[in-house]
């Protein structure tokens, strides 16, 4: 059942990206995002075996604007690292690594909307689960995919 749901989610995201003539990063975000979201929701972990290849893939796809991509990665990832250092219980290390990779595809003016949207998604997940805490990875992935695709 889980495999079918993952395949449905991935095909839906790819279809939307294709209809909107989205950049290649949208497809990479969808492929890695569906898998990372499922893992984070179930295990509250974002494995390096997926977050690091995603970061490399996104950086390679953004090579034509390498300076801006590195700046976005440093600012977005650095903000998440600062939060992790300030309040370690609020955010995991996997979220920080993921944020560095995702920042590469976000233009600097989109970083604040990405942070707000990802936080809103995380709060919605917590409300749906009726829990005080929720994984932040799905919110980061959803916000980044939405901002780069739509």
TrEMBL record:
<dbReference type="InterPro" id="IPR050882">
    <property type="entry name" value="Prepilin_peptidase/N-MTase"/>
</dbReference>
<dbReference type="GO" id="GO:0005886">
    <property type="term" value="C:plasma membrane"/>
</dbReference>
<feature type="transmembrane region" description="Helical">
    <location>
        <begin position="63"/>
        <end position="83"/>
    </location>
</feature>
<dbReference type="Pfam" id="PF01478">
    <property type="entry name" value="Peptidase_A24"/>
</dbReference>
<dbReference type="InterPro" id="IPR000045">
    <property type="entry name" value="Prepilin_IV_endopep_pep"/>
</dbReference>
<feature type="domain" description="Prepilin type IV endopeptidase peptidase">
    <location>
        <begin position="28"/>
        <end position="126"/>
    </location>
</feature>
<comment type="similarity">
    <text>Belongs to the peptidase A24 family.</text>
</comment>
<keyword id="KW-0812">Transmembrane</keyword>
<keyword id="KW-0472">Membrane</keyword>
<dbReference type="GO" id="GO:0006465">
    <property type="term" value="P:signal peptide processing"/>
</dbReference>
<protein>
    <recommendedName>
        <fullName>Prepilin type IV endopeptidase peptidase domain-containing protein</fullName>
    </recommendedName>
</protein>
<dbReference type="GO" id="GO:0004190">
    <property type="term" value="F:aspartic-type endopeptidase activity"/>
</dbReference>
<feature type="transmembrane region" description="Helical">
    <location>
        <begin position="103"/>
        <end position="128"/>
    </location>
</feature>
<keyword id="KW-1133">Transmembrane helix</keyword>
């Amino acid at each position: 059942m889980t495999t079918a749901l993952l395949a449905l989610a991935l095909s839906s995201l790819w279809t939307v990206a294709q209809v909107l003539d989205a950049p290649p990063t949208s497809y990479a975000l969808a492929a890695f995002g569906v898998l990372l979201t499922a893992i984070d929701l179930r295990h509250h972990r974002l494995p390096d075996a997926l977050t690091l290849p995603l970061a490399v893939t996104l950086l390679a796809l953004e090579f034509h604007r390498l300076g801006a991509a590195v700046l976005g990665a440093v600012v977005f990832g650095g903000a998440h690292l600062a939060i992790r250092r300030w309040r370690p219980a609020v955010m995991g290390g996997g979220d920080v690594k993921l944020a560095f990779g995702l920042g590469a595809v976000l233009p600097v003016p989109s970083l604040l909307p990405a942070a707000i949207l990802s936080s809103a998604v995380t709060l919605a997940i917590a409300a749906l689960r009726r829990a005080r805490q929720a994984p932040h990875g799905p919110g980061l992935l959803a916000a980044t995919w939405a901002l780069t695709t739509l």
